[in-house]
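Look over this record before class:
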Amino acid sequence: MNSEKVFQEIMERLSKHELTKIVAAGSTNTDKSALAEGASVWLDWLDVVISGKYGRIHHVINTATSGQTSSEMLEFLESDALSYKPEILIITAGEEDCDLQNNISVEKFTENLKAMVSKARESVPGIIIVLQTSPGFDRKMLADDGEEGKAEAHKAYMDAVREAAKSENCLLSDIDERMELLRGSYPEEYREIMQDSCTLNCTGHMLWGLDLGRLFGGKLPESQELYCEEGLGFQSLLDNLSEEE
């Protein structure tokens, strides 16, 4: 996720201390109700990290609904997310689409992503759009449940997110790439940040938010560093793994 230069537009806006509405559209790993251990998801940690650097010059709004596919996200994007007229929209999709039971092909998923981008730009001129991958699944746990195909399909859908970000000139937050480094090198440590085979726990969300916050040029307040020691430790481990790549 070494994309600091790419996120320059966001950092410049936040540095001007202009009121900025940041809205997240997503599914299970963004919706607070899917987190059994508590109510802080990655978006909340992004909020904290932005405040630590820029102050309270923004509002963060979570419109995610657990279980939504990209088709459902597209259907409700106008009423759920764009009604807030955000300056920044973060779209995290694919984790439900790659479940073959939902019958959404990679091609249809790509079409939905591009349609969401188009709709957002038509509704809010000048909007900054971040397309975000969702973290990979625990393949062993899925295999134990007889769902190996879901983990394999996930890669194709995340590749579609990357391609859509490029073709539609959107920013890309690739948390999946980061998480795959951890899963591949330290599978047991990877399971320490998972709530179940497909959902991150509180520590995993902290890591995710810290990573994205860094792309926004944010900084964790010193008063939070001790509390976030575990998340910071995982982030440091991922940074070291990235350097070895």
